């Protein structure tokens, strides 16, 4: 039989199936055996899920494209070189200026960690001495949040840049000023001298649910006003194993690539809910997993930067880890939730509140903690001095504790010699010793080395060393070190303590 209608095939099949169930053969309908209907219990069914059409992406792009900007940065390779030598595990530098992942001399430009902040324009990783006068250009994106030219982007887009240029959708270009940046959350606020600019509308990312539609607009590989769409894959993602991250990312499958850094992530209603920041990739290109900073984090940073020029994060003073099923059983918890305290720092907010190693923090300010990363993100959004309440599990029972949060120790500052004819650079990133560090090390005062590059690295100074003196004169703060080094044209002698040993190290500045 030549059947042209597929529906007819389905009907014929259904008739044959019914005949078989009823005890009849397809050709035995006229036999003396009476048909006996067989009752079949209908399987239980969940309520039908209503169909919802896709968002009007065309309208979202049309309404917002003019508020999305391209960002081009320029930096000197000699400055970048000072950061490169100690880039590993350094939150301040991210992956470098613009969208250009660093290699640190390895064949794989992303090292062993497939999580990276994405940029465009890779550099020549040859001899840094041959690159000192070569400007490094890189790309990123951003979006306008105020008609007078305030723009949000990623901190790693503008970090270390000597010049930042913003290109609007109408191809006008403006030099931008970096008002402030927060490496901990990877948010930066920049401003251009313009008026009556179009802006985006923002709404809390807490309204998002897994499976919701989202759309990104940016300039991947410099391709302006590129729109890509997908869904929310997960929420509350922590991207390290230490649970000390200040951001719980929105995970999406929106295609983002080098140059998308700092661009907006829109919900189905055209509201910005995040800033595209990182991707997971073993190749450097998009592999279906991208991460955005929740817009609440960005607006919190923006408010602080516009008011004070910086972002201060609170500090509880604990090391924490997640609770798995085995740990939950060991601590007699009903479920694997909360943040397990593995260490309490002396003289910290946690210590003063009475927290102990082995405590499991179940609630923070009346909010349940499903995982340890939630605690870190919540503390990072608070201000030093804020009071907080915690519900803690200890010895098989709960107790309530209160704490007054402390502040994060001063960030390391890159120390350069004052302007000289030689353009000498020391290449150290240092900070004063905290009271705990001074007490534990027995050093009355000094500057802890956090990053090393340039002349200091060539002299053999390492992260973890403590700078005690310059040419025999004790130093206790960054400005003092900067001033003393600035008086030298060629060589400076730094008294360094490493472990229990002290030694003067000559550093050639030229």
Describe the structure.
The protein contains 11 helices and 28 strands. Strands 22, 23, 24, 25, 26, 27 and 28 form a 7-stranded antiparallel sheet that branches. The protein has a 6-stranded antiparallel β-barrel with strand order 1-3-4-7-6-5. Helices cover 18% and strands 32% of the residues. The longest helix is centred in the first third of the chain and has 16 residues, at 6-21. The chain is flat and about 75 Å long. Mean pLDDT is 78; it is low at 1-33, 78-97, 100-112, 119-132 and 416-424. It is an alpha+beta fold. A hairpin with a 2-residue loop joins strand 19 and strand 20.
In whole angstroms, the N-to-C terminal distance is 93 Å
Q: Could you say which overall geometry the principal axes of the C-alpha atoms support?
A: flat
Largest sheet: 7 strands, antiparallel
The helical percent reads 10-25%
Throw out a few tags for this protein.
alpha+beta; 32% strand; six-stranded antiparallel β-barrel
Could you provide a short overview of the structure?
The protein is α+β, with helices and mostly antiparallel strands and 510 residues long.
Task: Give the SSE map.
Elements (H helix, E strand, L loop, with lengths): L5 H16 L35 H8 L3 E9 H8 L30 E3 L17 E10 L5 E4 L1 H4 L4 E5 L5 E10 L4 E5 L21 E6 L7 E12 L11 E4 L11 E4 L4 E9 L9 E5 H14 L5 E2 L2 E5 L2 H6 L8 E6 L4 H5 L6 E5 L2 E2 L3 H9 L6 E8 L2 E8 L1 E2 L5 E3 L12 E5 L2 H7 L5 E6 L1 H6 L6 E5 L2 E2 L3 H9 L4 E8 L2 E8 L2
Antiparallel strand pairs: 1-3, 1-5, 2-12, 3-4, 4-7, 5-6, 6-7, 8-9, 8-11, 9-10, 10-13, 11-12, 12-13, 14-21, 15-16, 16-17, 17-18, 17-19, 19-20, 22-23, 23-24, 24-25, 25-26, 25-27, 27-28
């Amino acid at each position: 039989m030549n059947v042209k209608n597929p529906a007819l095939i389905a009907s014929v099949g259904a008739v044959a199936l019914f005949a078989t169930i009823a005890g009849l053969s397809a050709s035995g309908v006229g036999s003396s055996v009476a048909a006996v209907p067989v009752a079949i219990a209908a399987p239980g069914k969940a309520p039908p899920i209503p169909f919802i059409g896709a968002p009007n992406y065309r309208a979202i792009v049309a309404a917002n494209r003019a508020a999305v900007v391209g960002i081009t940065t320029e930096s000197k390779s000699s400055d970048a070189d000072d950061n490169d030598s100690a880039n590993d595990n350094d939150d301040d530098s991210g992956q470098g200026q613009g969208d250009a992942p660093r290699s640190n001399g390895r064949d794989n430009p992303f090292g062993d960690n497939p999580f990276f902040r994405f940029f465009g324009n890779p550099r020549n990783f040859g001899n840094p001495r041959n690159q000192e006068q070569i400007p490094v250009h890189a790309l990123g994106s951003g979006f306008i949040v105020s008609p007078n030219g305030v723009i949000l982007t990623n901190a790693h887009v503008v970090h270390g840049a000597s010049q930042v240029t913003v290109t609007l959708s109408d191809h006008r270009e403006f030099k931008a000023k970096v008002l402030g940046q927060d490496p901990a959350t990877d948010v930066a606020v920049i401003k251009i001298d313009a008026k009556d600019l179009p802006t985006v509308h923002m709404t809390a990312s807490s309204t998002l649910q897994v499976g919701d539609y989202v759309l990104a607009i940016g300039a991947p590989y410099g391709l302006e006003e590129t729109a890509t769409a997908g869904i929310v894959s997960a929420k509350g993602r922590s991207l390290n194993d230490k649970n000390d991250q200040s951001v719980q990312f929105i995970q999406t499958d929106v295609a983002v690539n080098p140059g998308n850094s700092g661009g907006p992530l829109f919900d189905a209603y055209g509201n910005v809910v995040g800033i595209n920041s990182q991707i997971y990739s073993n190749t450097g290109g998009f592999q279906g997993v991208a991460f955005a900073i929740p817009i609440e984090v960005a607006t919190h940073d923006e408010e602080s930067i516009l008011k004070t020029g910086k972002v201060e994060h609170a500090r509880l003073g604990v090391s924490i880890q997640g609770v798995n099923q085995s740990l939950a059983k060991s601590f007699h918890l009903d479920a694997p939730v909360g943040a397990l305290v593995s260490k309490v720092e002396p003289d910290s907010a946690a210590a003063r509140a009475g927290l102990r190693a082995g405590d499991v923090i179940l609630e923070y300010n009346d909010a349940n903690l499903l995982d340890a990363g939630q605690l870190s993100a919540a503390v990072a959004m608070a201000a030093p001095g804020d009071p907080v309440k915690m519900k803690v599990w200890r010895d098989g029972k709960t107790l309530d504790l209160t704490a007054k949060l402390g502040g994060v120790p001063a960030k390391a500052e890159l120390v350069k010699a004052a302007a000289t004819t030689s353009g000498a650079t020391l290449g150290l990133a240092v900070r004063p010793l905290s009271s705990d560090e001074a007490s534990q090390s027995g050093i009355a005062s000094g500057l802890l080395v956090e990053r090393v590059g340039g002349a200091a690295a060539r002299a053999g100074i390492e992260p973890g060393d403590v700078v005690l003196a310059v040419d025999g004169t004790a130093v206790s703060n960054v400005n003092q070190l900067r001033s003393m080094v600035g008086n030298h044209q060629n060589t400076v002698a730094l008294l360094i303590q490493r472990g229990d040993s002290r030694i003067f190290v000559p550093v050639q500045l030229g």
